[in-house]
Amino acid sequence: MITPAFELTQDPDFLTIKIRVPYAKASEFDIYFEGEDFKFYAKPYFLRQLTLPGRIVEDGREKASYNTDEGTFTIQLPKEVPGQYFEGLDMLTSLLAPKKSRSAKPLVEEIAASAELSEENEEEFDWEVEQIPYEESTPALQHPYGFGNLRSGVFQRLQDELSDVIDIKNPDQTPAEERRRKRLAAEAAKFEPDHYLADFFEDEAIKHLLKYKPWWIDAHKKMTALQGESHQEHDSPPFVVFSEEEREQMRKFTNKSYLLDKRSRHHVYLGLIDILLAYSYEICVNEGDKNVESSWNIRKLSATLCWLESFSSIHDVLISFGRRVLCYPLYRHFGLVTRAFNDTVMILQLGKAAVLKCLLDIHKIFRESDPAYILNDLFITDYCIWIQKVKSKKLAALCESLQKTTLSKSHMGLELEELEAAAVLVQEEEKALKAAGTVSKQQLLCSESETSDSEESSSTSSSETEGSDSDEQESSTSKDGEINSFQGMLQEERTAPLIDCNGLRQGTNTSAMEVGDGKSKVSLQSTTPPGKLIEELEMQIHSAMRLSEQPEGLATAGCISQEQEGNPVPEPDRFSEDAAGKGNFLEVSPKPNPFLFLCSTNEDE
């Protein structure tokens, strides 16, 4: 037989049960209800028994309908007491439990069985656990952990997965007090002041995350608005709606009864707060989206899951969560601690349906993460089953105690306030130095501009004076340059080679001419006729000469005569006299003219 999918709703007069049976024959079905019992059969579906939280009656007002398109039966059953509110209609696992399992007297009674009965009759709940002096334990004893500290020896069989799931080594041989000491030491070693201060001052991304509104904020607003309008809480519609996947998961859970003593119940309630805080942080920083880090965030921030911690007070839970937020995740800001605290309060105020929805989401995250599924077996599955049977007044009392608990940075034990004060002082000093540097830079720029203005004015006046001096220097320099260039050309003319033009004058057809210095001669070959060559040379000589005043002491300078060789040669026409009888010097042009033409006197001429 198949257990069908179903859901229950109510109004003041009727209880409505909607059962989905897509492959059943609509003409063949059976319904049975009486008091708190309800049964349904339509082959191959069988809803063996629903144990209702209130009584229903058969008085002729009941009715049923079948939707062929959806394949669902809708059954309306009248309440025995009109207006009565049936609590826990969303707790499907609890509703599927056989009625006999709810008996306070089991067939085999244990000493701890009285704890469950006493919890039902207990009006006020003290959330502070009784302190027991620490006792040294024997090494052979296995220390319990898990939901209600009901498990032990699990990690002896799962050594390979141990390091990926929890931080404590050898938990079976480690007592609770030693776990706490090791956890505090690990958190103190992991805390990084630089990371914390970076998130403290550069908090734009964190402010954006704090604006995110998860589903429980809107549900809480609706609940508050309806409670303000009407004090009839039982008439209000449900503020938490489960998805079909969540309902299916609840139907798969095996119904259990937990025999917990008072101390174990305290650990369970406080562990629930710790897990919800970690879940609230995860939803806030990822804005409701799941990723590969979601499983790591939840189990790392919850000391209950990561260190198998058993807390003794709500304040210890908050301190542990706050320290771990500031030590491990990506965003380490105290504002996220406060936000998770407020979200957890809202979830508890919405009731066990909201708590169950969060636990089912955590169960799904761990189920899809390897090897975090071990934590489902140790904690989350049991929490999902247990929370469905918890009285709403217990959660209300727990929520009220949580709201009264205060948490500040000084409680973290990480010297946060001192770090922030020191960082603020450093920032102020840097700003002061930067401001002073800006002022000094401006003053330096002003002084430089004043200096440059004065230099420009002085340079303007000096440039005028230097202009006149430079003109005089240029004129004198040019004169000196002319004299030096003239002397250099005279020196070049003294060493210039001589050209013997005798062979050329004779009008021979030879194309060779000899160049020499009077003692040795070099033959120059040319394809130009001799007469033509002489004319070109004479033109160059005349164009390279200009008439200037004869310098003193140079009356006979540069005159080359063949008298030195014993042949009288007329003096070249390098000088001329003006009307006053003063000699004029034929100055050589700066153009290079290395040839000096000399003609010997022949009798033929």
TrEMBL record:
It comes from the Eukaryota. Residues 571-580 have a biased composition (Basic and acidic residues). GO terms for cellular component: cytosol; nucleoplasm. One of its GO terms (molecular function) is unfolded protein binding. PROSITE patterns: CS (PS51203). Residues 444-482, 501-529, 560-587 are annotated as: Disordered. It is found in: Cytoplasm, Cytosol; Nucleus, Nucleoplasm. Keywords: Cytoplasm, Nucleus. Gene3D superfamilies: 2.60.40.790. The keyword Cytoplasm applies. Belongs to the SHQ1 family. This is Protein SHQ1 homolog. It comes from Erpornis zantholeuca. The gene is Shq1.
